[in-house]
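Lab meeting prep.
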Amino acid sequence: MAARLLAAGYPLAAWNRTASKAAPLANAGARIAATPAEAVADADLVCVILEAGPAVESVLFATGVDKAIRKGAVVVDFSSIAPDTAKAHAARLAALGIGHLDAPVSGGPYGAEAGTLAIMAGGTADAFAYAEPVLHAIGTPILVGPSGTGQIAKLGSQTIVASAISAVAEALLLAKANGADPAKVREALLGGFADSKILRIHAVRMLNRDFRPGGHVRTHRKDLDAAVASAASAGLDLPMLRFVHQTFVDLCDQGLGDADHASLILGLEALNRPQRLSDKPDIVPDIDAAAE
């Protein structure tokens, strides 16, 4: 995402708690900052993307960033965090004269590299208008409502993705167990109503048993935790959400938190032993023994 901003001609200061991750951006023209407060000094737009709400809160409010951001600037938080946390951050920044958008993204590493991310923004119309031209360098931004609603849209996205991964895994295993070639079944479904990015990308990972993460199970589970909490606070009973949430909880309990979310097929196979989608060995980061 940072590389896309640089390619679009925007001046950029970058900071990462692991300095080596930010260093390559220097070759593309970025200024590498030693601290987050240094990174945001004099910035018109501050972009944040971190794993969870506590990390965002720490960076924004415990490192001097909130004091270093100039009044009138806008913070765009691309992180996936709880809606109430996003609203709290917006209120704290507003008190300092700083705008805020909660703007989680969807599209994975491929979308980030191509600049085609879906950007679901929550906040004021003024903050969105201020940030929108820059966001177009990263993907397609849509203002979905007031503060916190960008995160609600992301929780909906994560519910759909989790459900689709589950459905694709079940369809492939159903094919294999009944004598069809699951790879050919996937190919046959492309272009039909069952076609999706999940079928095109995650099904291949399942067939190749390559569970090195694009999206981590633990991160997806964190978002589903928030979706379950948001449904409960709204008085909703969402059976599909409850099911896929429990599936991701189970995967984490099995030691697969650092694997790609396509590893859902492993949990499905465990329920249906000795059925197995393919005889290829599992490629799982650092936890091969747990996947066997």
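Slide two material, second protein:
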Amino acid sequence: MQTPTALLGLGIMGSRLAARLLGAGVPLAVWNRDPAKTAALVGEGATVAESPAGAVAGRRFAVLALADGAAVEEVLWERGAAAALDRGSIVIDISSIPAPAARRHAERLAERGVAYLDAPVSGGSRGAEAGELTIMVGGDRGAFREAGPLLAPLGRATHLGASGAGQVAKAANQMIVGVTIAAVAEAFTLAEAAGVSAERVREALLGGFADSRILREHGRRMIEDDFTPGARVATQVKDLRTAEALADEVGAQTPVAAAATELFVAHLERAGPDLDHASVVAELRRRARGRPAGP
């Protein structure tokens, strides 16, 4: 695809998405708050912009891969990206932000003749590297069709409805992810406390009804104590709190997700924000410490 595109934000996900787009031949301008992160992409063909406005000017697509809703608000409206977008351009926001915020961005950008797709992703850094992300999209269907060739190298995109629908799906996704990680961590801690190898339990569960990608990938991380971040604890807490706020807004009951949120928050306060979210097993191990092994 030869359509000029900008990508704003080169964190864990954004840097990998940039590499995928460059590999697909997309003419790409990049911007990052810390310019040191842009250096590796120059050799792959990226153009480095000094500002968000400079990155998006003259570009048909602008992909946002930012940390949270506050960062999206700042980059779009305070740092000049929205004002620099040409009429007819399309913003594809893969950041995980509240659905009401996504709807506000869509409305404000529409007044400028710019389409906005909220398109959060799931699949972590490995999915981003492999081009196997799940992309949940809300917004104008015509804009979604136009963005299809750009999204194709990144993963499988599904249009879910009007603006904000992608963020609703992401909230649901993060509830499932958080609850399942917590459940795997609890199961492993139970096995260890009962004197049974968590590694052997994981092997036994593969292929059964308890099997999942989280059991396979995050379960391995827990056993190996490999908590190099693919998705950070702080991000998991942010997304669970976003889901909690959405549940309050629409009157849904989410008691299991609330329990998982409490666990992740406790772990965040003790371990800090930067470990992989699978490291929540350490909080459960801490709580079990000092108890004798075995039934």
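Talking points for slide two:
The chain is about 55% helix and 15% strand.
Strands lie at 5-8, 28-31, 47-48, 61-64, 90-93, 115-118, 121-122, 133-138, 155-161.
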